[in-house]
Design goal:
Elements (H helix, E strand, L loop, with lengths): L6 H11 L10 H16 L4 H17 L3 H4 L3 H14 L6 H18 L1 H7 L9 H15 L3 H4 L2 H6 L5 H7 L4 H10 L9 H4 L10 H6 L4 H4 L18 E2 L5 E5 L14 H4 L8 H13 L5 E5 L8 H12 L6 E6 L1 H4 L6 H13 L2 E5 L9 H13 L2 E8 L7 H13 L3 E7 L14 H9 L12 E5 L3 E3 L5 E3 L5 E4 L6 E3 L5 H5 L12
Parallel strand pairs: 2-3, 3-4, 4-5, 5-6, 6-7, 7-8
Antiparallel strand pairs: 1-2, 8-9, 10-11, 11-12
This protein binds pyridoxal-5'-phosphate (PLP) and iron/sulfur cluster (SF4).
The site of pyridoxal-5'-phosphate has 7 residues, from strand 2.
Length: 520
């Protein structure tokens, strides 16, 4: 079957044979080069030599305003080669399509991400700066008197967790006014960093994304003039249970975390004291799930689900696996980044066994590529080998992931590290403690929309707000009135909810969080 040439190839040949008034001449050397390319193209049963010949010929024709026949290549020869290309190529791609169209599409695409590619190397992942982190680890081990076994164990990490500003200031060089302020804050808010997480902080950098997430600053008290009621009672139909949706519930199995985040939405649940929940509480929650036949997906969360001892996790999973209408279990945990040592072989076995019965997804929270180190990457790999998916919920935070380069880098690093970006949350207004970390809705939207067509679709998260359920932040779902007040529409019932956007002035003030302490 002889294929006809397509319009792009006919166009290309037309360009090549177009008569020209110029009587230029090309050098013998150049002619010789083209002849060699031509012979190659004829001789070899490959597409590339044909493309190479056509490109060189086109460049020469354009540069010297000569036609191909003037140079010594007849129209029939060009048609013969073009047809040969089309016959060799598995998908019948034509010379014209490849040269005139496809090459331009690719070059335009490369052009679009040029700024990102240049920028991304200035944003390091924890893998890329592992050398420096290892330096921190050695220093911290000495300061806290930890041996290797302690460092590499979950128990050792918890035992040596950093919860006082005195210890913290030995590890990172904090300005005096920062130390005073943290002392004031920690009377009201908990601070706890695992030594591992503290080793990710680059000392002296007051804009460090790990520092901002883990160490409370003055704003946390100064912002919180108006306490907004904890949301819990509005949608907790049973003990330990939150429910907005018919098919999904969240089961809050603990109020504990390995580390306390400065942007924690559950700051009210986390409370000031670690609590062990009673068996009665778990039983009542499970009873509720048992008798609610519409529930098919249970999100085991906290606090941090992996804070629970292995036996407890095993027991909860087994109970859920025994409920016929429960089809999927999700576990919410930040431990793979805050204390990856926790992901031990026994836990992996428990997850793997339950995953064989009904799928498990691990849902983590990773907010910057800096949180992904060889150690956390390994934890994610081991998890992904034993459950059906590992996902990430990102919180959009000022200075941490509020630029295209930072967010793209995070999403690509997640994908390299066995984790699929799932949600980006616009940081909620409900907790005034962290309003200085909020990012305006549109800033986030530009970042997420900018990913489409530029990075793998598999690495693009959904952008949402949490306001009595998760509400997507697409353009037509965010309604801003003339006073700048934003209303969001709940897709499931059409209800309109007011959602105060981040204050632009606060967002644009570069003297917040740790930066304000530098002046000392
Ligand atoms: C986030 C959340 C869920 C899960 O939402 P998905 O959109 O299914 O991931 C369920 N229940 C509560 C209370 C939640 O906060
Ligand atoms: S790990 Fe999650 S629940 Fe725990 S403090 Fe951080 S954000 Fe809050």
């Amino acid at each position: 079957m002889k294929r006809e040439l397509d319009s792009a190839t006919l166009e290309l040949i037309q360009i090549l044979i177009k008569k020209s008034e110029n009587k230029n001449k090309i050098s013998n050397q150049m002619k010789k080069k083209l002849d060699i390319l031509f012979e190659n193209a004829k001789r070899k049963e490959l597409t590339f030599p044909i493309i190479e010949f056509f490109i060189s010929l086109k460049n020469t024709v354009e540069e010297y305003s000569m036609s191909a026949p003037d140079i010594g290549f007849k129209k029939e020869e060009l048609i013969y080669l073009a047809k040969k290309h089309q016959e060799i190529d598995e998908h019948g791609v034509s010379v014209g399509g490849r040269i005139i169209k496809a090459a331009n599409v690719v070059s335009e695409a490369n052009h679009r991400i040029m700024a990102y590619v240049e920028n991304k190397n200035s944003i390091s992942s924890g893998i890329e700066i592992w050398d420096r982190i290892q330096g921190n680890i050695e220093r911290i081990k000495k300061l806290l008197g930890m041996n290797d076994d302690e460092w590499n164990s979950y128990e050792g990490q918890l035992k040596h967790a950093i919860n006082s500003v005195n210890t913290l200031s030995k590890i990172i060089d904090l300005p005096k006014n920062a130390i005073e302020d943290i002392m004031r804050i920690t009377k009201s808010y908990r601070m706890r960093l695992t030594p591992y997480y503290a080793s990710l902080i680059m000392p002296l950098d007051m804009g460090d994304p790990i520092l901002i997430q883990s160490v409370p600053t003055g704003e946390m008290i100064d912002n919180s003039g108006i306490e907004i009621e904890p949301v819990a009672s509005d949608h907790s139909p049973a003990r330990l249970i939150d429910q907005f949706y018919p098919r999904v519930v969240s089961l809050k199995v603990t109020n504990m975390c390995a580390m306390y985040c400065t942007h924690c939405l559950r700051i009210a649940h986390i409370g000031k004291k670690d609590k062990l929940f009673s068996n009665d509480a778990y039983s009542e929650a499970l009873d509720y799930i048992k008798k609610s036949k519409n529930i098919r997906d249970v999100l085991i969360t906290g606090g941090d689900a992996f804070i629970l001892p292995n036996e407890k996790i095993k027991w909860i999973l087994k109970e859920l696996d025994n409920i016929k209408h429960v089809k999927v279990k999700r576990l919410g945990t930040r431990i793979p980044v805050t204390c990856p040592m926790r992901i031990d072989e026994e836990l992996l076995r428990i997850l793997s066994e339950s995953n064989k019965i009904k799928p498990i997804r691990v849902v983590s929270q990773i907010n910057t590529a800096r949180e992904i180190t060889p150690v956390s990457r390994r934890a994610f790999r081991r998890l992904s080998e034993n459950v059906s998916a590992v996902l990430d919920q990102i919180v959009l935070l000022k200075g941490i992931n509020d630029s295209k380069a930072k967010m793209w880098k995070l999403c690509e690093t997640l994908q390299d590290s066995y984790v699929r970006p799932y949600y980006v949350f616009n940081c909620s207004y409900r907790n005034p403690q962290f309003s200085h970390l909020r990012v305006p809705i549109e800033v986030g939207r530009d970042i997420i929309e900018g990913m489409y067509g530029n990075i793998s679709g598999d690495a693009i998260p959904k952008y949402i707000a949490t306001a009595g359920g998760k509400i997507p932040l697409h353009r037509d779902n965010v309604i801003r009135n003339e006073h700048g007040i934003v209303t969001l529409k709940k897709p499931w019932n059409g209800e309109m909810v007011e959602y105060p956007d981040a204050d632009r002035r606060i967002y644009e003030n570069n003297n917040s969080s740790f930066r304000k302490y530098i002046k000392d």
